From TrEMBL:
Domain DUF8055: residue ranges: 21-136
Pfam families with a match to the protein in the record: DUF8055
Organism: Haloferax mucosum ATCC BAA-1512
Chain spans, region Disordered: 1-24
Ranges annotated as biased composition (Low complexity): 1-10
Record protein name field: DUF8055 domain-containing protein
Comp. bias intervals (Basic and acidic residues): 11-24
Signal peptide: none
InterPro entries, sorted: DUF8055
Amino acid sequence: MTGDTASRAATDADRDPEHVRFGERVRDLAAEARQAKSAFDPPPESAADERALECARDGVGPAVALYIEARTGGRMVEFTEREFRLLHRTLNDWLSLYTRCYGVELDADFTIREAAEVLLKTHNTRDTAQLLTCVPARH
């Protein structure tokens, strides 16, 4: 996506320090998502809603919020291609965990921008996760 990644490969020394800090935050969020994914055990049905809320609030929310922060307030943070891929994977790892809380295996592949647009409309991370994944189904 044009404007989301740096136009050329750059080392952290060549980048704006604020952009480097955003990259560090992406790497931290990605590490948390990997750890959560490797330690994940699906909850019992009685705890599915609460656990799914945690995945949305503590995982999807911070990933999407970081992207929104990077795109608002007059700034246009350029992520490296690797950072942008990590942010994308982080979002989708959390969305996959969210659906697994309900017993649904989903190989999520949503863009961070798509998730940000939904969050800005709903103002709710759980609604964002549900609208993107369609889990649980709305009646």
